[in-house]
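ok here's ATP-grasp domain-containing protein:
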Amino acid sequence: MNTASKTFICVSNFFKGGDFMSQLNKLGNKVYLITSEKLKDKPWPHEHLEEIFYMSGQDLDWNLEHLLLGVADLMKSNKIESIIALDDYDVEKATFLRENLRIPGMGQTTGRYFRDKLAMRMRAKAAGVLVPEFSALFNDEEINHFADNVAAPWVLKPRSEASANGIIKVHDKENLWKHIHELGENRIRYLVEQFKPGDVYHADGLNLGGKAISCTVSKYLATPMEISQGGGIFRSANVPYGSDDDKAIQKANTEVMKAFGMKDGATHTEFIKNREDGEIYFLETSSRVGGAHLAEMVEAATGINLWGEWAKIEDSIAKGYTYKLPKKRKEYAGIVLTLSKFEKPDLSSFDDEEVCFRVPLDYHAGMIVRSKKHARVRELLDEYAERLTSDFSTTADPEKLTKLH
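and the structure:
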């Protein structure tokens, strides 16, 4: 085991991952952060960071050549052990840097399975994982074949957009083509997929050496797609341990991770249990910790801090020691969250003893509850959703909002 300090570069387009970077530094490592200029004023954990570098633009706007040259310059005086992508939008940047600078970790081919929804579906289908019927939008004949043979409704999905942003639901062939024509040359960046009605689940996991060493299964009580398209209350709670749903999603998650070649780190994967046939279908995955404060929800239920444990996994790989997952708690937790008409909503009236976390974001109102009883969590989420709807909810101006998911 090599206990000497290692140097890590973290890349993030969004304000997240503070626990990850702090933990890496506490383990004796040097941590650099590359983020967007727009996030300069965010409370990053400066005391745990060697330096922060700022790029102009956000999301997909960064100049990758400038990024590469900047990191190459940093490497002249630092041996970089690892480059970590903290958000969906950063996966391409990190894989691009690793490939060019020959730094170990996920490369561009595997990275596509965790970013490109078309690559995900093609890979999952080839590996025998159940996925809803889908088609790329490259070839007109293939699109017509899909529309003539797969029952509507369908959804047009951006291939590389995070969360439920940009999804269009269509109910017939004429409308499908209308939307495709409106996309113009941009159509190549979308796919069409059969809409499967049912409950959506998410598996929040940690992987090491190609195996899922921890996986917490939860169910969205209102999905990110519903929230992004109609406003409302976002809710999720982990499912009863050992239940049929828990076992089925755990199995499906293991299959996906194996098919996609996931080696080490955190993953957030979504599945749908189809209302018509009861089967579990793969929807999408990402090589990151889930957003919308799902990490805090998982920690409330299990005691496992996904960001912190991911940092320890990266540290163990860099230094060559065996990582051991802490003992997991088997309790229940749920989150309820909405966009708020108040910049800093007063949530003091939500004072049940089960409340363990209040969402700190401006123009958001939400909290996490924890209990040893699954039924109690669900009861509180239902009650709080009603109260938030009547007293706090809004569809606020987009510029005031950050992503729910």
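+1. The first strand starts at residue 7 and ends at 12.
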